[in-house]
UniProtKB/TrEMBL annotation:
Residues 8-146 form the VOC domain. Coiled coil: none annotated. InterPro entries: Glyas_Bleomycin-R_OHBP_Dase, VOC_core. Keywords: Lyase. This is Lactoylglutathione-like lyase.
Length: 149
């Protein structure tokens, strides 16, 4: 049997309380909603290990079409843990980072909508400007702008 090889990263998943509230946040950053659907039944629970489940998902895509973010809102079973407010150095903590072309403009726009800049915008050598934003529901999102010489 031939050894399996990695082809691509398909998506990153984030569990949220409300798709209706979180989707506009990621659209503001620049992702596009591909679609929403209900995933339910015993077959789905066999994949996740949760048994019979009902989850509404929204798939969001980056402008280049290469990366996706799958947002999941669990209906059954109910969410059992909440890690959204954990500091960035927590074990197993998730954050997603996006590369943007005008970091200051985007951060200003996000702050005007009530989202919170964590720390400050910093410059890493002559390579990137970077920051973290606490978005809708307290989700941590990294933003980076490549510095072109």
């Amino acid at each position: 049997m031939a050894k399996s090889k990695l082809i691509e990263m398909h998506n990153v998943g984030i569990v949220v309380e409300s798709l209706d509230k979180v989707i506009p946040f990621f659209e503001e950053i620049g992702l596009t909603l591909q679609g929403r659907m209900i995933v339910e039944g015993e077959w789905a629970g066999r994949v996740t290990g949760l048994g019979n489940q009902t989850v509404e998902i929204a798939m969001m895509e980056t402008p280049d079409g290469h990366s996706r973010l799958e947002l999941s809102q669990f209906i059954v079973p109910k969410v059992v843990s909440d890690h959204r407010k954990a500091p960035v150095n927590s074990l197993g903590y998730l954050r997603v980072m996006f590369r943007v072309d005008n970091l200051e403009e985007l951060v200003k726009r996000l702050i005007s909508k009530g989202y919170v800049l964590v720390g400050e915008i910093v410059q890493y050598e002559n390579t990137y400007k970077l920051c973290y934003i606490r978005g809708e529901e307290g989700l941590l999102v990294g933003l980076g702008q490549e510095i072109k010489s």
